[in-house]
Structures are given as C-alpha cells and as structure tokens.
Protein: Isopropylmalate dehydrogenase-like domain-containing protein
Organism: Stentor coeruleus
Amino acid sequence: SSTKISAIPGDGIGPEVFQSVVDIFDATQAPVIWDVIKLSTKMEGKDPISPEEIEKVRANKVGLKGPTTTPIGGGHVSMNVFLRRELTLYANVRPCVSVPGVKTLYDDVNLVTIRENTEGEYSGKEHEVVPGVIENLKIVSEKACLRVAKYAFEYAAKYGRKKVSAFHKASVMKMGDGLFLKKTREVGKDYPMIGYEERNVDTACGMLVANPHLFDVMVMPNLYGDIVSDVCAGLIGGLGLTPSGNIGENNAIFEAVHGSAPDIAGKNLANPTALLLSSIMMLRHLNLFDHADKIEKAVHGVLKDGVTKTRDLGGSATTTEYTKAIISRL
Amino acid sequence: SSTKISAIPGDGIGPEVFQSVVDIFDATQAPVIWDVIKLSTKMEGKDPISPEEIEKVRANKVGLKGPTTTPIGGGHVSMNVFLRRELTLYANVRPCVSVPGVKTLYDDVNLVTIRENTEGEYSGKEHEVVPGVIENLKIVSEKACLRVAKYAFEYAAKYGRKKVSAFHKASVMKMGDGLFLKKTREVGKDYPMIGYEERNVDTACGMLVANPHLFDVMVMPNLYGDIVSDVCAGLIGGLGLTPSGNIGENNAIFEAVHGSAPDIAGKNLANPTALLLSSIMMLRHLNLFDHADKIEKAVHGVLKDGVTKTRDLGGSATTTEYTKAIISRL
Ligand SMILES: CC(C)[C@H](C(=O)O)[C@@H](O)C(=O)O
Ligand SMILES: CC(C)[C@H](C(=O)O)[C@@H](O)C(=O)O
C-alpha cells in the first residue's frame, strides 16, 4: 500500500527540482502518492497556506517541500517558519556528509545538526518599546528543550553515533541557554553509551571550521542551529547538497533549504540534489530503506562519476539530463 | 610624552602573555605607561571591577586586556561584557588576516568583523515568565545601529576597504534586524565610494567558509558578530592569532579574546600573539604607527620564519623564548 505524501513544490526552481524527485520515485516505483498542497496566492496579511490545506498536510503526516522564497519585511512569515510552527515540527535535522566527487575543503565530513525549531528568536514576538527601540523576545521553554534534546540522543542512539555536543551561549544568556543546557544534560544521563559535551556556540563554530572531525551530532537552540547548519553546509559544498528534515510528534516535513533561485527558474538548470537527498531522508523515515538506499546509491554514483553535472557544480547538464542519469543507474 | 594605558592582564595565562607585550614595548621604547587596574577579588554579586578602578580605566581612555575567565551561571557578568557595557564600547573590531607561516585552509584571508557591542541578546535582560519558560530580551535601538554602522563605514574609508556587508536575519526578526538594516543602509548612502550589500547571517557564514574572499568589512548585531568572528578566526588558525578592539566614543579597550587556558597557566607555554596583535591595533589607534609597524614586522618575521614557535603552533618554544625572538628582530 502506498503512503500519501504532501507535496509542496515551492517557487522559483521549486517545481523543476520537485519534478526530478517525482520522476526518480516513479522510476524506482517508490510506494508514495503525491498530494499537491495548494498555496495561498495573495499572501498579504495572511498565512502562506490556508487552514483547509494545512489540515491536509496534518492528515498526511509526512511531506516534501521544495525551496520557497523568503519574504523580507511586511507582515509575512516565511513558509518554512510557518510550517514548522503550525505543525510543531520541533526538531530540524540537517545531516552534512561529504558528497563523493565534489571537491571541498574536507572530504570526509560527517556531521548532524539538530536544531530546536519552534522558539528562541523565532517566536516572532517583537515590538517597539519606545520610539527607536525594538524588543525581540527570545523564548526558551523547558518543554521545547526537553523534546529536542531527547530527539538528539534518540537519533544518536538509532544511527550509532558516538557523541552529542550541545552548543550554547550560557555565559551571556544564563537563564535561557542555561535552561537549554540543564535539560540536555539531564536527558543525556539516560544515554550513558553516548558521549556528551557542551560548547560555546562561537568557539564551536571556530572549531568546526578548523577541524570538523571534532564533532558528531550537535544539538542547539533555533538561531544557532540556523547558522551552524550553514557553516557545516559550507564545508561540504553548500546548501545545494544538504538535506533537511523537520520532525514533530505527528508530522514530518523534509525540505531543501537552499534559495528558490528565481534567476534560473524555468530554465532546466537547477540542481535537484538537496531535495533528492531530503526525499531519501523521508523514505528512511517511512522505513522504505530499500528505495532509499537504491536512490542514494544512484545519486552518489552520478556525482562521483562527475560526467553529468549541473552548472552549479561546474558541469553543463540540465536538470532533466541529471535526473535521467540517476534513473539510468537505479 | 607617554600615554597612560590601563593594563588588565587577566587571569590564567593572562599575566604571562601580558608580560610579553610589556617586554616588547619596553624593547622598542613605545611611549606608554602601564596603569595596572585592580580587579575585585570576591566577584560574588558584584562587578568584576570596582567603581573606583573603573574610573581610572575611564580616565585613561585606552586600555589593553589579556584573557579573562568567563563565569558560567550564577549572577556574574563576564569581564568582557562588563567593560563593553560600562564604557559604552559600541563597536567590536576583529580583523582576521592570514598569518605568515601558519598553514591553514586559506592563506590570504583578509576580513574585518565589526560587531555591535552593547545590546542585542547581550542586554542581559532575562526572566522566567511562567514556570519553565524563560524570556530573553534582544534589544535593537536606532542609536546603537547608527553608531556601529557609522564606525564600519568610517573604518572602511580610513583603511581603503572596498565593501561593507551587513549581516542580518530580517526575514525572521523583521522589526529588530529590520531596523539594523535600515540604519546601516542609510549610513551607507553617505559613502558612495564603498560598496554595500546585505546578507542573511546564515547564508553569509556558509559563504565565508566556502570562499572568504567574497567579503571585506562585515558589520552586524552583537550575537552574530560573536559567532562570525570565530568563524573567521577558525579560517586563519584560531583566536590565538586574532586581535580585537572595543571602540567607544571616549574609550577603547584592546583585548585577546581567546580563553585563559588555566591548564597551562604559569608554565611559560602560552602564545602571546593575539594580545600582541591587539597591542599593535592599540598603537595604531594612538597614532603610534612607527612602533606598530616595527613590532608587527618582527612578529610576522618570527612566525614566517617558523623556528621559534609556541606549542599551540606545533613548536616547542616557551613564551619568553618567543618574546625574545621577536625582540631580537625589532
Ligand atoms: C528561510 C529562513 C526563515 C530559514 C530559517 O532561518 O530557518 C532558513 O534559513 C532555514 O535555515 O531553513
Ligand atoms: C566571553 C564572551 C562573553 C565574549 C562574547 O561573547 O562577547 C567572547 O566570546 C568574545 O567574543 O569576546
């Protein structure tokens, strides 16, 4: 029996890279049915997805999302932030693994950023206290700290990881980041087989750049996770090559977090790898391991081979040529 | 005539690395007089420097500070944060320039992080709103945005820099980071010769790692600056090789921001380079360019030569041996 998956292709290059995934899933007969979610067209003053459509997303449980344009300014909330908040997708998981055939600073990076995904500076609470002074609330709750910490250790246990590092700035945010550390430390006690350490987020970023092998699984508050996951992606060739999953109690949305690249949209030039790798994470989440392994092998094969490369990787292949090369290896 | 400089040697390896600077300044007859500031011994519940001593720091205008231990938890404020706040040192300047002889990922990095240094999440305002939920205030004021933006463009103009990049997360913190962008953009209009761009801080960090040559002078809110300056330092060999200056209207404190390394304290093993480079920044701030150039040339000479290296750089020289090697090149 097939699983219904919410499909949110996104905008810009979104539809093209999403089509690539659909074609590859078809070719390997992955047992999923795509349920395309309608986005609100007039975003002014309202949410990017209507209450009816979000109910479909909720009912489907699992979804795949292509890149979406982030609105800057105005009253708009980004689609990513909206979905994470609406579905309480409390853990953002970003594995960062060196991709064969893509030459970067280090060739054996294997890191996982697990980011608290619902609060911190992302609570969206801001106001002008007196003219010219803005107060932005950073919220840290025991509940959110506990659940993301548990997820991090569970993830480490499940995938045979050796160490969890908690990144923080508790010397400055003594109460907020202090609470995050306290809860993570507490959870860690239940996983004696997994190493645990705490690092200042600034120091940790310097260490990551100088020697990424010092870390394994890293768990942290929202904003730090946003930055750290991009630092990690930068080490292995950018957001075009890194998958991402947003995990909640009942729902999970996997997404490509790179930009929607409006300049090359519709030109059949986009690289679908990030969304493909995200879809592979999704298949594993659905316990469809065979399909996941098969597609992953094909993607890695094509990248390692280096013959059919999209322009961002220095090649000249179109999105469809790259997709076909993967399909021919399935 | 000599200038009186507040001397805050710090703890751990602080006194040793500070002595190195004092010896080198003596050798080159730099016209400064050190005014050693007494730190409060019992830090419990009170500030790390007494009101009387802070008045001396204020009156001296310029100071040099070695590494200090950052208290975690309790009611303590870190010495760095205390001085920045107390003296309204609104701009934290961290040049990150590849050091000759130290092999790192890139060998021609030349970046300057200019960080807002008085507010943001560092305002220190936190409270528990309901049990288990902490609210931390991130403050962004027009005044603080304006002065740090002005400093960034003035710095770029003075040192012949080509571009200022403002890092932000205005898609999420629309009002707060939005205000920062608005003010920086406004100030930028007065400097038509200097390029200006805006980047999401997460994206920018990924770009910095993948290609640090994309940036020049970077200006940003407090917390981002804390992280970005460590990312930059990681690119050139760490905080042990990067200077820092805290600039205010009336005061300026130059400091080494690496840890106080209590494990090797008192063993004559510490590398004084970060404090030395900070003292060179200080000399330039005092318009003592000849002394600055002379010391800088000697430090670079010793590092490039690679014969007398401290342990952190893979050598076996003691702090005093390294200091003597520099003095012999003056
Ligand atoms: C688009 C933006 C709001 C989002 C974030 O900050 O979370 C993005 O940067 C990400 O990392 O998924
Ligand atoms: C010690 C700490 C409070 C400080 C900061 O976060 O500013 C340090 O990391 C720095 O960068 O100078």
